[in-house]
Design a protein that fits this description.
355 residues, disordered C terminus, disordered N terminus, 11 helices, mainly alpha
């Protein structure tokens, strides 16, 4: 196996990418906690360098609190908040931003070192550079999201929060996929198109569900219609259709309904996928991966119901967001395994029977 200069794989590079993926996972979870605690607007400025330092004395704290008191969220939601209460939400947002800075350093510095030492497989250099660029873009999108809640709104725009979450999950997937490529080397397998397509569709459906969850979070729809399987005693509570297309982004009833309905379809699709993997006796490991995805989907669905019916307490909300990232990782690894497999999907019959 070639693992060194000019080689096709390098496991030190793979470990670095997996560590960065773990940090992004932590970032997603902390981001969820920041949202659930209402902390996201506590820092009203974007200072990529100087903002790494928190307030260092009483005057600094009073200045930061005064800036927060000037935005609509304070006047309409947190009027009368004490400085100590402000500090409680400030630290979550500061930790979220600090973790973002640490991720940037944890990626950029080793990337430069590995490039200088010519340790990164050549086919992965551009991918790593793209991931670095996406990380920088994520910082800009984060501020774009926060800025939507500083003047006219009392919270961030749901669609901007969803874009922010979606890009974080894209980076998360890219790090894992690239890490797997660095660990195992390039594959020249010719995969059965049908089964690979089915795995890709399943991953795409998981991504859509994650984005729908982002809209639920942005619209705070997890705090309403907390009965299940009905919604306030009906299949679909009243929707403010007067909003037009914005109803699909902002209406609490509709975004929660969409998240529920897509979850049902995803559960059915993931279960069928796993059953077919067993029926067609996939290559060793692939059937287990399919069942792992299906099991993760069911566990996440049960967790989602529990989170909803308890009106999204902090610990359940954070756990549900973490679960979403893990389901996404499972579906992505499943696709990666399928695409690399050189085995036949079943012992007899035509190859065209794949999903």
């Amino acid at each position: 196996m070639k693992r060194f200069i000019g080689g096709d794989q390098n496991r030190a590079v793979a470990i670095w990418l997996f560590v960065c993926a773990a940090l992004v996972f932590a970032m997603v979870v902390v981001g969820g906690i920041t949202r659930l605690t209402g902390s996201g607007l506590s820092i009203t400025e974007w200072k990529p360098i100087m903002g790494a330092l928190p307030p260092m004395n009483a005057a600094d704290w009073n200045a930061a609190f005064e800036k927060y008191r000037a935005i609509p969220q304070y006047a309409q939601v947190n009027a009368g908040m004490s400085l100590a209460e402000f500090q409680g939400i400030f630290w979550w947002e500061w930790a979220h931003r600090l973790l973002g800075r640490l991720i940037g350093a944890a990626f950029a510095l080793p990337f430069a070192v590995f490039l200088i030492l010519r340790q990164i497989p050549r086919r992965l250099i551009v991918r790593c550079a793209i991931l670095l660029a996406l990380g920088g873009l994520q910082g800009l999108i984060g501020w774009w999201m926060v800025s939507s809640g500083l003047s006219e709104r009392i919270d961030v725009a749901p669609e901007r929060l969803t874009v922010h979450l979606g890009l974080a999950l894209l980076i998360f997937m890219g790090l894992i996929w690239t890490g797997l490529e660095a660990w195992n080397g390039e594959s020249h397998a010719r995969n059965p198109a049908g089964w690979s397509r089915g795995a890709a569709v399943l991953l795409g459906a998981v991504i859509v569900q994650c984005l729908l969850g982002g809209l639920v979070a942005g619209a705070k729809a997890g705090f309403v219609y907390t009965d299940w399987p009905l919604m306030n005693g009906g299949f679909l509570p009243p929707v403010e259709w007067s909003r037009g297309g914005l109803a699909f982004l902002h209406d609490q009833a509709l975004v929660q309904f969409n998240h529920r309905i897509w979850a049902y379809g995803l559960l059915i699709g993931g279960t069928v996928y796993a059953v077919q993997a067993w029926r067609w006796r996939l290559a060793e490991g692939l059937g287990a991966a399919a069942f792992a995805v299906a099991a993760a989907l069911w566990l996440q669905a049960l967790l989602g119901v529990a989170t909803l019916m308890n009106a999204t307490p902090l610990w359940l909300g954070a756990l549900h967001q973490a679960g979403a990232a893990l389901v996404l990782a499972a579906a992505m690894v499943n696709l990666w395994l399928v695409r690399r497999s050189q085995a036949r999907l079943f012992t007899s019959g035509p190859r065209s029977r794949g999903l």
